[in-house]
Amino acid sequence: MTAQRLVVIGGDAAGMSAASRARRLRKPGELEITAFERGRYSSYSACGIPYWAGGEVDGPGALIARTPEEHRERGIDLRTRTEVTELDVDGGRVLARDLETGTERWHGYDHLVIATGARPVRPSLPGIDARGVHGVQTLDDGQALIDGLERAPGRRAVIVGAGYIGVEMAEALVRRGYAVTVVERAAQPMSTLDPDMGALVRDAMCGMGIEVVTGAAVIEVRTGAGGEVTAVVTDAAEYPADVVVLGLGVRPETALARAAGLPVGESGGLLTDLAMRVRGHGNIWAGGDCVEVLDLVSGRTRHIALGTHANKHGQVIGSNVGGGYATFPGVVGTAVSKVCDLEIGRTGLLEEQATAAGLRFVSATTESTSRAGYYPGARPMTVKMLAERRTGRLLGVQIVGGEGAAKRVDVAAVALTARMTVEQLTALDLGYAPPFSPVWDPVLMAARRAAAAVAADAGG
Questions:
Q1: What string of H, E and C letters represents the secondary structure of 65-128?
Q2: 421: CATH
């Protein structure tokens, strides 16, 4: 029997999870696996780069789950520094270019996995490619940033963008002794939160000595005589900088797939079915940061770049390619982060997202503490909850507070997945002891207030 050929484009979470799962299910004589990765590393945690930069963890080795050599030992022909430049869907082949030698070669496939990830947003601005301006998407980016920090002539850093990467990098550079300015176009940092919750993050960051500039659009990165960065210029002011870090988010890396005519959604991510098969193509699969996924709350597809999803996508794809059956039902949009001592969690929809989905809702916000108020170490915590009008179905939760705040959002993520109402949420039998929570957990307190808002709205 001739072995089938599996080709994987992308050597990180989704791609190598798919290859590894398929390898476990199918013997080498049944399935030949070739994977292409344009970088030098495989199966690594990009989420750990800010903590590497801040000196909390070692890198890059500590961030690598499995090296290219380890994948090869397990029967996967992983070729690093090799970029796929063209897909021939009708011919069932890909054109791969060796970035070291420049040689190109076509490779045929019976199954194709597209796991090309996402690319950082890098606006076309004067000076944006200057020495000292860094993105933080890959381990190579992380190493370049750390090398740049060691060479920087001073200790002034400007972070452009105040999303997850922006606030995490702000913390990392504060830890390194830098004077940090964060510049954000929106009215508040963390656009993954509603503005009123983002304002809490801003207040906390300012209290940590971070200068937070909002409502400001960057128009130029100013450079010195040697081409090195010297300042970031907005439409209102100029901020001196020895180092600039871009934290403007990412977009799906789907140029290759789009050129081959594969379907993409509104945000540019590949569209798949529940088995992670590209729609309309029985032998092409896609997963990770290059796809859009179903939002179980709104019923729409969204692009959410998270390693948790990518690994699950890979497991699903590998199971299906390997002869089994698995599906990825969707997400509720759960994410956590922190900046210094402040923890941030969210799941479900923001007010703007709920409105865009045509949902009518009420909201409730409560202030509580992470432990019983009399117990040492109790930290303040704010919880905001959205519920659908009339039905009371939970739509979203945001939490900002001290230690113990962020992971409380997991309770809400389960409730969203189960399509629970806020009234049902109030009755959950959560664990209690003074070192862990007040008698009424902050999430349950918010649910009680949201349930009261639903009832009042119905009565009105």
A1: CCCHHHHHHCCCEEEECEEEEEEECCCCEEEEEECCCCCEEEEECCEEEECCCEEECCCCCCCC
A2: 3.30.390.30
Residue-level pLDDT at 460: 61
Active site residues: 47
What amino acid occupies position 278?
A: V
Average pLDDT over residues 78-99: 98
Q: What is the token pair recorded at 332?
A: 């509720």
Upstream peptide bond of 60 is cis (omega within 30 degrees of 0): yes
Q: What is the CATH number of the domain that holds 235?
A: 3.50.50.60
**Based on the domain organization, do 193 and 272 belong to the same domain?**
no
Q: Per DSSP, what are the bridge partners of residue 160?
A: 183, 246
Rounded to two decimals, the pTM is 0.93
Rounded to whole angstroms, how far apart are CA atoms 31 and 49? 34
272 in the same domain as 378: no
Query: Is 309 part of any domain?
Result: yes
Alpha carbon distance 109, 93 (integer Å): 6
CB-count exposure of residue 440 (10 Å: 0-12, 13-18, 19+): middle
- The number of folded domains in the chain is 3
The domain in which residue 379 lies consists of: 341-459
Do the domain assignments include residue 335? no
182 in Cβ contact with 189 (< 8 Å):
yes
pLDDT tens for 102-129 read 999 999 999 999 999 999 899 999 999 9
